[in-house]
């Protein structure tokens, strides 16, 4: 039986990701199309606790499709992890008679949504929004494609100067404990090596690879280091390599938060629109505690629980193999 949902709130939480605005727009307009009252929660779970919940209409989301960041703002809210914080959040939702909550965010956001939904029986739907691509059940998370493109553009620029000076660059990219960003950007920028949190690459192997480059007359080398790499960040790796292998002038670049900003790619605008549209439609059909995701160009549902606990299988094996072969 379809639930009688009348009032739906949407929030963005955790790290912002390009495409979140396209998604907010889709959620709000799809809800309004179905005759629902729509609300935006400011600053993720912090806004639920602080009762910063605003009514939204079709015009509240005009001209945002192309904007990076999130008009609803976002936060890392520790208070929501505590029972008292959740209780406050529930009271505020209840007072406004909000019976559906759509959260756009990553693994942390989904963990919170799952606990909240279970505890208070609120209908909850998750939309995967994080540049990290660390959720199972969606081939791509919102913002990942834009971030990968932004990083490739930055590395291309570094390659120009690396090549001109015959230098070795260690470039650190984001991804917390997920190497998806590092792997894709390594393939697309022709990096000589990539260090991932999920796979062990010994320093010895890395040095052998770089030596081969010198022997075969490579003028520059680029090593992508994922921030979650077990041997440390780009600075640590650079230091250890330099100690044992001093054939290159070595430099380090930490790309940092520029990776998260910028106008969403066409892919992320479409993905955000599709996921937002689907989340509302599925919620109105009775789905709850589910994530909407893209699998093989189809929108599919995955329970929040499964989405959270299986992401380590996402690295594409062929890409891994390719980074080694195509950089000889
Ligand atoms: N165990 C938890 N219980 C309740 N809320 C949580 C939990 N883990 C994370 N959250 C909430 O989700 C927010 C976003 O999580 P975070 O890990 O920062 O980003 P992301 O959702 O992008 O992975 C946190 O700031 C917190 O409010
Ligand atoms: O902006 P902050 O709070 O320093 O967080 C940095 C982290 O956020 C991210 O950019 C995105 O991660 P989340 O989606 O989990 O928020 C990670 O890649 C990075 O480790
Ligand atoms: Mg996360």
Automatic annotation (TrEMBL):
Residues that coordinate or bind substrate: 130-132, 167, 174-176, 227, 251, 257-260
Gene Ontology CC terms: 6-phosphofructokinase complex
SUPFAM superfamilies: Phosphofructokinase
Positions of ADP binding: 25-29, 159, 190-192, 218-220
Residues that bind Mg(2+): 107
Catalytic activity line of the entry: beta-D-fructose 6-phosphate + ATP = beta-D-fructose 1,6-bisphosphate + ADP + H(+)
Alphabetical UniProt keywords: Allosteric enzyme, ATP-binding, Cytoplasm, Glycolysis, Kinase, Magnesium, Metal-binding, Nucleotide-binding, Transferase
GO biological process, one term: fructose 1,6-bisphosphate metabolic process
The keyword Transferase appears for this protein: yes
Family annotation (InterPro entries): ATP_PFK (IPR022953), ATP_PFK_prok-type (IPR012003), PFKA_ATP_prok (IPR012828), Phosphofructokinase_CS (IPR015912), Phosphofructokinase_dom (IPR000023), PKF_sf (IPR035966)
Role noted for this protein: Catalyzes the phosphorylation of D-fructose 6-phosphate to fructose 1,6-bisphosphate by ATP, the first committing step of glycolysis.
Subunit and interaction comment: Homotetramer.
Record protein name field: ATP-dependent 6-phosphofructokinase
Name of the encoding gene: pfkA
């Amino acid at each position: 039986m379809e639930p009688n949902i009348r009032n739906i709130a949407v929030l963005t939480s955790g790290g912002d990701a390009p495409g979140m605005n396209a998604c907010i727009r889709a959620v709000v307009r799809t809800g309004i199309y179905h005759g629902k009252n729509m609300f935006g929660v400011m600053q993720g779970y912090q806004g639920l606790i602080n009762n910063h919940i605003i009514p939204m209409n079709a015009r509240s989301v005009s001209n945002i499709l192309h904007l990076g960041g999130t008009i609803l703002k976002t936060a890392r809210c520790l208070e929501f992890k505590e029972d008292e914080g959740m209780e406050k959040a529930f009271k505020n939702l209840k007072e406004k008679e909000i019976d559906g909550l759509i959260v756009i965010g990553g693994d942390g956001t989904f963990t919170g949504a799952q606990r909240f939904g279970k505890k208070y029986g609120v209908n909850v739907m998750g939309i995967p929004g994080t540049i990290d691509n660390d959720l199972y059940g969606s081939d791509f998370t919102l913002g990942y494609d834009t971030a990968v493109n932004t990083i490739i553009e930055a590395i291309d620029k570094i390659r120009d100067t690396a090549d001109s000076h015959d230098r070795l660059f260690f470039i650190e990219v984001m991804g917390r404990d997920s190497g998806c960003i590092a792997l894709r950007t390594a393939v697309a920028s022709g990096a000589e090596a990539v260090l991932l949190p999920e796979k062990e690459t010994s320093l010895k192997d890395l040095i052998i690879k770089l030596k081969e480059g010198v022997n075969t007359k490579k003028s520059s080398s680029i090593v992508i280091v994922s921030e979650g790499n077990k041997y440390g960040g780009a600075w640590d790796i650079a230091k250890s390599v330099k100690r044992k292998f001093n054939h290159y002038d070595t430099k380090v670049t930490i790309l940092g938060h520029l990776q998260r900003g910028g106008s969403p790619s066409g892919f992320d605008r479409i993905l955000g629109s599709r996921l937002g549209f689907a989340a509302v439609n599925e919620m109105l059909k009775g789905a709850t505690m589910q994530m909407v995701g893209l699998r093989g160009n189809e929108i599919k549902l995955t329970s929040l629980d499964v989405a959270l606990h299986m992401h380590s299988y996402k690295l594409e094996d062929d890409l891994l193999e390719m980074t080694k072969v195509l950089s000889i």
